[in-house]
Design brief:
The chain is built from eleven helices and ten strands. The chain has two domains: 26-116 and 148-187, Rossmann fold, CATH 3.40.50; 199-314, Nitrogenase molybdenum iron protein domain (Rossmann fold, 3-Layer(aba) Sandwich). The protein has helices spanning 2-21, 37-46, 72-80, 93-102, 152-169, 174-199, 214-220, 239-252, 266-275, 290-294, 299-314; strands at 30-34, 53-57, 83-86, 109-111, 120-123, 139-144, 205-211, 224-229, 256-259, 278-281. By secondary structure, it is α/β, with parallel strands linked by helices. The longest helix has 26 residues, at 174-199. The chain has a four-stranded parallel beta sheet, sandwiched between helices. A two-stranded antiparallel ribbon has the order 5-6. The protein has a two-stranded parallel ribbon with strand order 7-8.
C-alpha cells in the first residue's frame, strides 16, 4: 500500500510540474488505453480505419497479467487518455484506487465486468483451492469470476459498450464505429456458432492448470475438470489433485490435457507421461506472448485455435 501511495504522489508531482511549465503530455486526437489484451483488440477492431485514434495496451505482451504493477508513467498515461478500459474486480483493485484519486467522472472509463452478467467463480469436483474445499460436488465460494471475455457472446456485449462510448466521445466518426462494430459482431457470432458445434461433441475437458473459462464453459455447456479454479493463486497441485486428474483422464477417455498460456506446463507434462495423452493449449486471451503480438494475433485468431484444439480433444 505504501508503494502505491508513493506512486500516486509521484503522478501528482508529474502533473504539477507540467502545469507549472505550461506544458501538456503530448497525445493523439483520441487515445484509448486498455489494461488487458481482449479489450485492447476489441477497441482496435471498432476503431479500424479511423484517423487520429491510438489504441494501446497497458500490460506489455508476454507479461503475466496477475503479476503486473503499474509505474508512474503508466498512471500518467491513464490520467491523460480519452477512454480507459479495464477489467474491474479484485484483480484491478489498484485501478479503482487510482481512479479514486482523480475524482468521480474525471476519466472516461469502461469496466468490462459491468458489461455482462457476472458468474461466481466455480469449484468443481477435484479442484485444489485456496479455500480448502474437499473433492465434492460443484460449488461456488462467493467470488466473482472476472474472465468475462472468454465467451464470444459476452465479447459482443463488451464491444457494443465500447462502440457506444466512442460514438459519444467522437460523434464525427459515429458511422465508421457503427460499421466496424457490425462487421466485428458478425465475426464474433461466427465464433459463437463454431463453439456451439464443439459443444455438441461428447467429451470432457481436462485442464492441468487454472480454469479461467467459466463463461465459455457455461455458455456452451462444456464439462470439465481442472487442477485449480480460474482465479486461484496456486500453481503446484498436490499429489491427490494429480491422481484425481489421472483417474478422470482414464474414466472419460480424454485424448488430451489442456494448459493455459504462460503456464509452466509441468502438470500437463506429468499427466501426459502417466496417461499417454497429448497436451494442447486452451488460450484464455488474457494476454499474449511477444511473438504472437508482433505476428498480429487477435482475439478471433486465438479463439479459432481454441476451437481447433477443443475439436481435436473432444472428437
Amino acid at each position: 500500500m505504501k508503494k502505491f501511495v508513493a506512486i500516486i504522489m509521484a503522478v501528482c508531482l508529474l502533473f504539477s510540474l507540467a502545469a507549472c511549465s505550461g506544458g501538456n503530455i503530448e497525445k493523439s486526437r483520441l487515445h484509448i488505453i486498455s489494461t488487458v489484451f481482449p479489450s485492447y483488440d476489441f477497441a482496435r477492431q471498432i476503431t479500424k480505419g479511423v484517423d487520429g485514434v491510438e489504441v494501446s495496451m497497458l500490460i506489455p505482451p508476454g507479461t503475466e497479467p496477475h503479476a503486473f504493477e503499474p509505474g508512474v508513467q503508466d498512471m500518467a498515461q491513464i490520467r491523460e487518455c480519452d477512454l480507459f478500459i479495464f477489467l474491474g474486480g479484485e484483480s484491478d483493485q489498484w485501478v479503482e484506487e487510482l481512479l479514486a484519486t482523480f475524482g468521480d467522472g474525471e476519466i472516461n472509463t469502461i469496466r468490462m465486468i459491468d458489461c455482462v452478467e457476472l458468474l461466481d467463480e466455480e469449484t468443481v469436483e477435484g479442484m485444489q483451492t485456496d479455500h480448502n474445499h474437499d473433492h465434492g460436488e460443484v460449488s461456488a465460494h462467493g467470488e466473482k469470476d472476472e474472465h468475462v471475455w472468454t465467451s464470444p457472446v459476452n465479447a459482443i456485449s463488451i464491444c457494443e459498450k465500447i462502440k457506444n462510448n466512442l460514438i459519444s466521445a467522437d460523434g464525427d466518426n459515429a458511422e465508421k464505429y457503427t460499421l466496424n462494430f457490425a462487421s466485428y459482431k458478425n465475426e464474433l457470432s461466427q465464433l459463437d456458432e463454431k463453439f456451439n458445434s464443439v459443444s455438441a461433441l461428447e467429451g470432457t475437458i481436462i485442464m492441468a492448470d487454472r480454469f479461467p473459462f467459466r463463461y465459455l464453459a457455461d455458455e456452451y455447456s462444456l464439462k470439465y475438470y481442472a487442477a485449480f479454479p480460474g482465479c486461484s493463486t496456486e500453481s503446484d497441485p498436490s499429489a491427490a489433485t494429480i491422481a484425481f486428474l489421472e483417474t478422470k483422464i482414464k474414466q472419460t477417455g480424454a485424448k488430451a490435457v489442456f494448459y493455459t498460456e504462460f503456464s509452466s506446463q509441468k502438470v500437463a507434462d506429468t499427466l501426459c507421461e502417466s496417461t499417454g495423452v497429448k497436451k494442447l493449449m486452451l488460450h484464455s486471451c488474457h494476454n499474449v506472448g511477444k511473438s504472437d503480438f508482433e505476428n498480429g494475433a487477435t482475439y478471433v485468431s486465438l479463439m479459432e485455435q481454441n476451437i481447433k484444439n477443443l475439436s481435436e480433444a473432444l472428437n
